Every structure is written in C-alpha cells, then in structure tokens.
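Hey, sorry to bother you again with one of my protein questions. There's a protein on my desk that I can't quite get my head around. No rush at all, and the record is pasted right below.
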Amino acid sequence: MKSIDYYFWINSDWACLGADRLEAIARRHHVLINYKPIDLIDVYSRTGGIPLGERSLQRRAYREAELNRWMKRLNISLNVTPRYMCPDAELASRYTIAAEKLGHSVAPLYRGILHAQWCAEQDISQADVILQVAKNIDLPANEIMNFALSDEMGDVYRAYTDDAVEHGVFGSPTYIFQGEVFWGQDRLDFLQEAIAAATV
C-alpha cells in the first residue's frame, strides 16, 4: 500500500489547517499516512529557517494575513496569537509518537493537541494538558505517557528530525510521496494530484 511520509511540528498552525484535508486525501485514495513529528527549531537551524519570534515584523504580519485568508477559505477558526504560542514541543511530539507505536490512531490525538494550543489557549508543553487531550478521545493516557518518556521515544523523535532534513524538509507541514516533497498545507492539491496519478 502506498503511503505519505508526513513531517510536522506539533506546534504548527499550518498543520492544524491542513489536518482534515490530509486525512480526507488519504481515505479517498487509500494511502497510509506515516506520522512523523519533528523538532522544527532544530530543522530550521540546519536548513536556514527562522523561528517565528525572530522574524521581521513584515514577515510576521504577512503570516497573520495568510492565516486569516486560509481560515476564511476553510471555515476554520484559530487564534493566530494564542496565549501559549509555540511552547517546547518535545513532550507532545514524543507522546504522539508513543501513541502510534502502541497501535493507537494518531490523527485525533495530534489534531486534539493542535486544537488545545490554537483554539483552547492551553500550554501543550504541560503533561496534564496532553493527558487530558488523550483522555478526551478515550486513549490510555498514562500508559502512553510512560512510553513517551522512555529513551526509545526520544531516539525516534530525533531520528524523525534527522530523516526530515535528509529528505529535504525545511518547514511544517511537509508531505513526501514517492520521493516528491510538498511543503505547506497550500500544496495539498498538488499532493492529491500526485497520489491520484500514481494510484490509477
């Protein structure tokens, strides 16, 4: 079965906007999604990216304008400057990885974490916030947390980040299908076209 390697930052507002459409594309074309949370700050440091807080006022203003355009188009509401904006993403990322490795569905979990930050004004660097997201979707929250804190999950998180850089990733979300890189939720149409052409 064909698959999409999906590299994303668990803090990514753009991943939040693209999440539902990515799932719909995968269902429509019967392809798997390999969820790979990454340390985007590390990726930036190795690929020339600039963290949001260090960008010029012009770039930050344009980000907000683009978010507002896409929210209107998609009928999705986010807070473009949430109270806890882009906190340390390691625990939430490792938790998401741990859930998948334990055989649980990742999509509702990572969407719940994104919603907590961008819609519910919650600090996703805090364990209690992540645990509550998991409990809300009936996952074994504490079991996943114990695994997330293991050295093994830290190693996987770092490996995903290294793999991302090796495969040409420099931002979030990035989708790779059959070696072709698609950066940004605004490239999902191109991703769908590539999948459709490959699955005829």
